[in-house]
Design goal:
- The complex is a heterodimer of chains A (72) and B (509).
- Chain A has 72 residues and is mainly alpha-helical.
- Chain A contains 3 helices and no strands.
- Chain A has a single domain, classed as ACP-like (Non-ribosomal Peptide Synthetase Peptidyl Carrier Protein, Chain A, Orthogonal Bundle).
- In chain A, helix 1 packs across helix 2 and helix 1 crosses helix 3.
- Chain B is α/β, with parallel strands linked by helices and 509 residues long.
- Among the domains of chain B are: 125 residues, Rossmann fold (3-Layer(aba) Sandwich), CATH 3.40.50.980; 99 residues, 2-Layer Sandwich (GMP Synthetase, Chain A, domain 3).
- In chain B, 30% of the residues lie in helices and 28% in strands.
- In chain B, the strands form 8 sheets. A 5-stranded mixed beta sheet of chain B has the order 13-14-15-16-17, covered by helices on one side.
- In chain B, strand 21 and strand 22 form a beta hairpin.
- Chain B is globular, with a radius of gyration of 23 Å.
- Chain B starts with a strand and ends with a helix.
- The chains are: A mainly alpha (72), B alpha/beta (509).
- At the A-B interface, helix 2 of A face helix 9, helix 10, strand 27 and helix 15 of B.
Chain lengths: 72, 509
């Protein structure tokens, strides 16, 4: 799951392959912003995973590993 | 003073004074609340202080801040003291503000956010608080505002790499208020208007002038709230908003959640979207989620004072296609489509949208050549006219937007000249050349990508390079102008004129 999330984030941010790791701080490292977060939620929905933006705290989605945990 | 039913700024300020006799709340900002009475007392105190301190110096007052409660009091206080104001957002870095100060030569700089300008004219947040709370002079000074008097100047992105100031007069604001009235007016008591946009962008004029003039409560969404979905939904649920005026981008942040529905906003009567393209997709989502709420798409450049056209968006209108129209001109505005020689084109033909009316700005500050190109006198109405640079056509009396004639894009409602970003990127070390392109989502610019040619390899990963360049660019341009992605290229594709081939680059997005 974490790998799939990293693939989506790599696509959204234009990072190099292998640059985003499971514990990368996504907001601090400039991978995600508010609009990137929406893109992530929409992309995950396309993969069959549901995240409700209205319930999302930034701290819950601050790393790929935390996002994976939230989806399980 | 009123002309043809038009309410003047004098009448607007009189209405504020009347609302001050009630116990109504004017603005909510986080945990803070400001009553109309406090707004009135503080604006009067600031006006008196300006008159005492600045004497005959009629230069404008620069206000550096975001959406702080003190700002509206400073704005209206400046007007009562016969001066214009220049709101500059904290997303503008110090270097950009210095350029503006150099050009503007303001009489005073109110610095609410610790900008750190070394200038004898700076008034700190603490000093301002003392002035605003001085209650020895509860009544306003005697004042008279002429329609041609400058009310505010907004600095927007300029293609040369420097911001340009658009002057807006008291008469322009009066024309705006007349134009929007049929679209905004409501019988609802205790209306609440969303206060999303920074005061340095003209969509905020809807809340500041229409909202406050009608005794509404301005419900402010601050930066932290806008950047955190959970907080945003909590704020919206608590807002009681009746009139939602925002860029479509704000709704796009919300629609992925099913909670964005009538249950979240039980009092909302209408959504007015402006500042950027409203897509068909978002329109349909809004109509589905809020079937009994009016959905309005409105349009207007800063040079024609906030909004000049609007359309009620319905399923029937969307079915007519080909896109969501920006609407019909407000009654006091003349809008037409011009061909390359300036000739008026018939319905259905694409050309530049031209506007004329009392809403058209006196012009850019200290830009005579640009003013000569952009502004003119309309031979039909005799009113001041403006060439928008927007490519449009008219069908069944409604204007449809097709794109720009130049390199300007609207990003989350902010106007960005791509050349402005490019010219500042090449000022950074190790950047030989740069090209900036908008990234389109559902046909609408959603972010920027910069392509850069490095003078020498930097050995950095893409993310690290992007991070460093974004931080360095952030010292020169406002945050909304910073590309989300920065891609290093080995060489730029060139067209036959030797210029960067942006169409070829777009294929790399």
């Amino acid at each position: 799951m974490t790998d799939k999330i990293i693939d989506i984030l790599t696509d959204i941010s234009g990072a190099d392959e292998g640059e985003i790791l499971a514990d990368t701080e996504l907001f601090e490292e400039g991978v995600l912003d508010s609009f990137g977060l929406v893109q992530l939620v929409v992309a995950l929905e396309g993969e069959g995973y549901k995240l409700d933006l209205a319930e999302l705290d930034r701290s819950q989605v601050s790393t790929p590993a935390k996002i994976a945990q939230l989806l399980q | 003073m009123s002309a043809g039913g038009r309410e003047s700024i004098m009448q607007f300020l009189e209405k504020l004074a009347a609302w001050a006799q009630t116990d109504r709340t004017a603005i909510v900002y986080g945990e803070e609340r400001l009553r109309y009475a406090e707004l009135e007392a503080r604006s009067n105190a600031f006006a008196h202080w300006l008159l005492r301190t600045l004497g005959d110096d009629r230069s404008p007052v620069l206000l550096y801040g975001h959406k702080e409660l003190a700002l509206p009091a400073c704005m209206f206080g400046a007007l009562k003291a016969g001066r214009g104001y220049v709101p500059v957002d904290t997303s503008f870095p110090p270097e950009r503000v210095r350029q503006i100060v150099e050009e503007l030569r303001p009489a005073l700089i109110v610095d609410l956010c610790g900008l750190g300008l070394e200038d004898g004219r700076v008034l700190s947040a603490g000093e301002l608080e003392e002035i605003l709370h001085a209650d020895s002079e509860p009544v306003p000074p005697s004042f008279w505002i002429r329609p041609e008097q400058a009310a505010y100047i907004l600095f927007t992105s300029g293609s040369t790499g420097r911001a340009k100031g658009v002057q807006v007069s008291a008469g322009n604001i009066a024309a705006f208020l007349e134009g929007v009235a049929p679209w905004f007016d409501s019988e609802t008591e205790n209306g609440v208007i969303l206060n999303e946009i920074s005061y340095s962008f003209d969509v905020s004029v809807c809340a500041l002038y229409y909202g406050l003039g009608h005794g509404m409560l301005l419900y402010t969404l601050d930066r932290q709230t806008l950047s955190d979905p959970k907080r945003l939904f909590e704020a919206l649920a608590a807002s009681g908003v009746t009139l939602w005026v925002s860029t479509p981008s704000l709704a796009e942040l919300c629609v992925p959640s099913e909670r964005f529905s009538r249950a979240l906003l039980p009092r909302v009567e209408r959504f007015v979207f402006c500042g950027e393209v409203l897509t068909e997709k978002l329109s349909r989502q809004m109509l589905e989620r809020f079937p009994d709420v009016q959905l309005i798409n409105a349009y207007g450049p800063t040079e024609a004072t906030v909004l000049v056209t609007a359309a009620r968006v319905t399923e029937e209108l969307l079915a007519e296609g080909p896109s969501v129209p920006i609407g019909a001109p407000f009654s006091p505005v003349r809008a037409w489509i011009a061909g390359p020689e300036g000739e008026e084109l018939p319905e259905g033909e694409e050309g530049e949208l031209l506007l004329a009316g009392d809403c058209v700005s006196p012009g850019y500050l200290f830009r005579p050549e640009l003013n000569a190109r952009a502004f003119f006198t309309d031979p039909v109405s005799g009113k001041r006219g403006y060439r928008t640079g927007d490519l449009c056509f008219i069908k069944n009396g409604l204007v449809y937007y097709c794109g720009r004639l130049d390199g300007q894009v609207k990003l989350n409602g902010f106007r960005v000249e791509l050349e402005d970003v490019e010219n500042n990127l090449v000022k950074l070390p190790n950047i030989a050349r740069a090209a900036v392109l908008p990234v389109l989502t559902d046909g609408k610019p959603s972010s920027l990508t910069a392509f850069v040619l490095l003078e020498a390899p930097d050995g950095l990963s893409s993310l690290k390079r992007t991070q460093r360049l974004r931080a360095a660019l952030g010292e020169l341009v406002p945050s909304y102008m910073i590309p989300r992605r920065i891609v290093a290229v080995d060489a730029f594709p060139l067209n036959t004129n030797g210029k960067i081939d942006k169409k070829a680059l777009a294929a790399l997005l």
